[in-house]
Amino acid sequence: MGDLKQHSLIKAQERLRDQVGHALRAALTAGELKPGTVYSAPGLAAELGVSATPVREAMLDLAREGLVEPVRNKGFRITEVSERELDQCTELRMLIEVPTVGRVTETATTEELEALRPLAEEIVSNARDHN
Predict the structure, then answer these.
(1) What residue segments make up the domains of the chain, in order of their start?
(2) Buried b or exposed e, range 7-43, using 16+ CB within 10 angstroms
(3) 4-78 CATH choice from 3.10.50.40, 3.40.50.980, 1.10.10.10, 3.40.1190.10
(4) 110-129 pLDDT, tens per residue?
(5) 81 Cβ neighbours under 8 A, 6+ residues apart
(6) Strand order in 68-71's β-sheet?
């Protein structure tokens, strides 16, 4: 029979790669990784507490998505988002979020809506603070 251990190792590496990718996307979204800045895979790996390989793989995934660009022998540069791209994201969010909120308000109980109030207030506060 084949080496089944090899297949489970591959799955474990894929999961770590995905976890690192999610962490890096969150850091990008939160502004913790600055546009125009070059980050090395070993440096990010040290901050995340993982080896450089899953970070490098995750960064290559982000490069395919246009979020970073490889810089030979240095790492990855965070791409800058243009005003046009930000406008497009805003339009897309409005197309998705407004109808979704409308549906939620029609189907949710009063208690469920009240439970969402602190989150809504936090969103308004962050928007007011340009966060």
Answers:
(1) 4-78, 83-128
(2) eeeeeeeeebbeebbebbbebbeeeebeeeeebbbee
(3) 1.10.10.10
(4) 999 999 899 889 988 888 88
(5) 35
(6) 38-39, 75-78, 68-71
Tell whether the model's pLDDT for residue 14 goes beyond 90.
no
Q: What is the pLDDT of residues 57-102, one digit of tens each?
A: 999 999 999 899 999 999 999 998 788 887 888 899 899 999 998 9
Contacts of 70 (CB under 8 A, 6+ apart): 59, 60, 63, 76
pTM for the whole structure: 0.60
Looking at residue 114, its amino acid is E
Predicted confidence at residue 31, as pLDDT, reads 81
Provide the greatest CA pair distance for the chain. Answer: 62
Secondary structure letter of residue 82 according to DSSP: P
Strand partners, 75: 71
